[in-house]
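User: Hi! I'm a student and our assignment asks us to look at how structure tokens line up with a sequence. Could you show me two examples?

Assistant: Happy to help. In each example below, the sequence comes first and the structure tokens follow. Example one:
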Amino acid sequence: MKHIAQTGWRISRPVSIMAFLGDSDIDWPALALAGAMLLMAMLGLSALGHRYGKRILAGNPDAATGTGAVEAAVFSLLGLLIAFTFSGAFLRLDARRQLVVEEVNAIGTAFLRLDLIDDPTERQLLQKLLKEYVNSRIRLWAKMSHRSAALAEVTVACALQREIWSVAITATERPELESERLLVLPALNETFDLA
């Protein structure tokens, strides 16, 4: 039996999921404090500007006539910024939807190609493991708001990936099963890559 490293299967995939879940060196309390201080500074400066403007207008009522162009420019830039924000959010949502569709298609293809395996015991075991893997992926996205539960589910999914791959290598290692190996293993690899 070949070792997993010899088959070209990459085990580095869960690392990117861990990074996505926030396993990094960011000091979140300090970041929240900096955000709160920035918000307070903006509100304070806004109030200070309002008082300064009232004092200027009290001394010279004609001072407000030239601010229309500046206000229009500021609101135009704000509108442009909001438009770019929503556009970026829509593009990310659309990309995520596309990835979900690709992952579902890859899982369906892999499940169908498992029918090519001759040994019914290994075929049924692989189909059972792939169903467990799909359920684990569903549970992972359901638990995404709870970091520790999601990380535990990532561990389960990674263990299932390794087990599925090991059983698939064993089921297709005989030389006469070359065509099955060339169809089943890439489908499983694509399924794991899209995870």
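Example two works the same way, sequence first and then tokens:
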Amino acid sequence: MWSGTRNPHPRSAKEGGVTFSFAVGGTPAAQLIPYTHGDEISTIIPSDLITLGGTMYLHAVVNQSFGNVIWSGIWRSQDNGATWHDSGARFPADAYDRMRQLATWELGADGRVYVYTSKFLRETPMILHRVRPEQLTNPDAYEPWCKVGNRWRWGAGPDTVTDGIIGESSLRRFGDRWVFSWFDVTNYEINAMVLAHPTQDLRRTEQVTLLHGTSWDAQDANHVAQLYGSYVIPGSTLNDLELTVSQWNTSDNSVYHVSQYRFQGLGRAAGLTVA
């Protein structure tokens, strides 16, 4: 979907947030990535997108029956997402104990792209790589972050940067701070951290719970049934953060949608004085 929304923050509940103007690919919406659903590939599921220069790069997870990931790849577009072309990048599904499947990435002030990855089925902690933008589609150019003795460094490993299981996630930079939001599978929550840098020790970083999971008969403003996702919407700030959070009632498929949530004061909750 294409949106012309410049400011995602609604002035009132009635005004709403992000609105969509039309579907990329025509009306009705067309399949984003051209491929045939069959025995070889059943479905390709996007995990994150980054724009570098005039090119958009889409990281996606390739399934041979849902949950059976065979590889992850990168597609690129130079017409604002109207058409996508396979870059040829292939990340094997079994790499690093299957922790290189689902990704979120962001460009740092140093000119490198930082990439958090985990297993698609929400069964592992997370690892970190970095790569130069011009090498984004070259899997061999990614540098892993690892612990050697008592010190962390680039080039070996990688080692896990979290203890808890990481589900869908989103890493975004706001000036000299970063926000990492994710679906906390173990505690059934959407959580967030404010970071000075992706290499920060996440095990010692304060996390803020944004939404709690609950049952379908106990929902309210802060409790959402069968929630997942947690993707930062462009235009957000540290103290006015907008996320898309999905819901799926897997018992009868009566609910399968994404909603926009607004969280104010995240930077202050993390002890920062920010606008």
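Here is something you could point out in your write-up. The chain has one helix and 17 strands.
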